[in-house]
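Protein modeling request. Please complete all fields; requests missing the sequence field cannot be processed.
Requester role: graduate student
Desired output: 3D structure, token encoding
Chains: 1
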Amino acid sequence: MITEFIGNSKSLFESEAKFFDKDLKFYEEVFKKLVKIKHKPYTPKSLSLPWNDSQQLVLNHFKTLPLESSSSTSGNENIFIWGQSGAGKTAVIQEVRKILHNNKVKCIFSTLCGVLAAKNNFSTFHSALGIRDCDKSWFQLYKNNYVTNNSRVLKNLRSVEYFFIDEISVIPASAIAYLDFLLRSVRSSDSPLVKFCFVGDYYQSRLVIGDKSLIEDTDCSKAELCFAQKGRDIFKSVHYKFTLLRSERHSQDSRFLELLHNVRRKNVSKEDISLLSSRIWGNLSNEEHETFKDSVLVCPRNFTVREYNTKSIKSFSGDRIIIKPVIKKNSRALHFNGQYDLELAVGCPVMLNFNYSVPNRIVNGLVGTLRTVLFKKGQPRLLMIKFENCNLPYLQNGCVPIPPKWMNIGLNSVGQPIRIKQFPISLYFATTIYKFQGSTSNKLKVFLDSKEFHSGATYTQLSRARKLSDITILDTTINIRRFLSPHFLKELKKEQEEAKRLEIYNLIYSEDVVNCEQWCS
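Delivered output (521 residues):
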């Protein structure tokens, strides 16, 4: 790996390295110890929370259900627990987990996000299915009849009665279809014989409108579309629906909560636009600017994130280092023009992009601060990163050693995988909505963009904060038409149709919901 020091960064990194007085081999052994630890057994914990009426309905259902139907695994009683952002969905299913555990009901609790999995002692969705470091799509796994050979995973899948998926809005429909295929395969049955429990925000759910990437990909085969449709059909087969009505996160700002509802219902008024415009960066005082100094920017598009991160690291206080990847010789890779170069500085915010250890919370999405880079014979061997809420006893100065890893980044012109060796981290001055979903922030910068990237994106962005005063908007202007894009008229209609089928329409869409067709002319 080639490194390029900018300014006086070499001496700066060397001075920081003095804080780590052990040899390189010691830190490599620490890393091996981190990733060697297996999943910790689940131990029930009492949350001691005052449950509201809608939350209590969910708990009462699971208190009686195991006694009635734990022996019956027909798979026809799928459950959907939904509620708006901040309604306490995760806290409720934590309590449900304790109830089912006490009744000796076999369950798997999963989520796609590594940070949420580690925080709640869930499995990641991939690890629950025995998939690790795989670059194939869900459809490709199905087409290749891939079934894990991990004995622990297979044992769990054969005995599970309830399969919980938290943050269902970030799970593609094709992933649900593959899960269904996998359960049928390991159980040698025409039916998965499992009750699925989907947990998430209906306002954000991809499964309502399908896989946007598949729908828009002109090269997508009919077989892939049909496969994704199977996942949507499973989601639509829910038998029980529970709604958590109250948003605990936004209870301090009722006007902000009303604004969020209007944004998601496509029912935005001029008053709502004025309220949002009051939070534009240029309309805030210098004192307020200072409160957002270290906050992350949440954007809808990847290229906006890359541009902001690049601009921020170049203006970051202190000198920088550029780490260039190693490209495998037989990859026949094209010239990347620095696309996979990693530009870093001591003290810069970074995010881990790989699940190294779920039990130790060294997972994809974990945010931290770079302390230094440790070298061997002039080559970068370890990044020493101080991660938030990571206080493992055998770490020196609380820093986790992160080595580089080989990763696939696509296919070359002759269909061969392109492999590079690089550190699996990215800068964290900005991140995407997808990466930030499920988080709550004290202070938040958002870039809305000129149009909504996908239905519900703006709602998801804004709802990460507790109050409107905790948000600043980096757009120069906000136009009401961006919330009523004709591109999403069909999506809105599909959402409304599904809401009627689930008998939750009146809880989401008011009678005077804006007719988007009038904005399409």
